[in-house]
Amino acid sequence: MSRRCRRRPTLCAWRWTCSSTTPAPVSGDTPPLGTATNLTCPECHGSLVEMPAGSTRYRCLVGHAWTPDALLDAYGGGLESAMWTALRTLDEKAALSRHMAARSHDVGRVLMADRYANQEEEALVAADVLRKYLLRRGMREETGA
Ligand SMILES: [Zn+2]
To answer: Which stretch of 21-30, 64-73, 96-105 has the lowest confidence by average pLDDT?
Structure first.
């Protein structure tokens, strides 16, 4: 059995649920692809629906299809990428705050220098926590622990 819609094989966004016995949709009356979820597609960030077919699969309106394991892997990759970006941002914030603290100190703006020094310290503490987490996670993945 083909999973493609027989009525509009190249245009049908609901080809996974459409069959020859399904009544033709009225213009503007788009049938649902499946059950709505609170999940988003890692590729296009569109909403995902859970397909009604026998196996658990998810699709977005663009047509990206996901098994639960593929979705979990994609979410994990996106999360790790975001954490490395956060770490780089914290390192840059610490470096800029350190630079601005030194400049403020050089021109006698002691309160500003203290404020920048505090921002540097906060960024360094947060970066240290995140760096340790990412390195521990990387070691666990390398050893399979
Ligand atoms: Zn998508």
So the answer is: 21-30
Q: Which helix (H) or strand (E) holds 48?
A: strand 47-50
Stated pTM of the model: 0.61
Q: How far is the CA of 74 from the centre of ligand 1 (A)?
A: 12
Whole-number Å distance, alpha carbon 79 to ligand 1 midpoint, is 17
Residue 19 within any structural domain of the chain: no
Cα atoms in the Cβ-side hemisphere of radius 13 Å centred on 84? 8
Are residues 94 and 136 part of one domain?
Answer: yes
- 76 and 122 inside one domain: yes
In angstroms, rounded to a whole number, what is the distance separating the alpha carbons of residues 4 and 20?
10
Q: How far apart are the CA of 28 and the centre of ligand 1, in A?
A: 22
Per the structure, the count of domains in the chain is: 2
Centre of ligand 1 to C-alpha 73, Å, is 15
Task: Determine the distance separating the centroid of ligand 1 and the alpha carbon of 100, expressed in angstroms.
Answer: 43
Query: Which range of residues forms the domain containing residue 120?
Result: 70-143
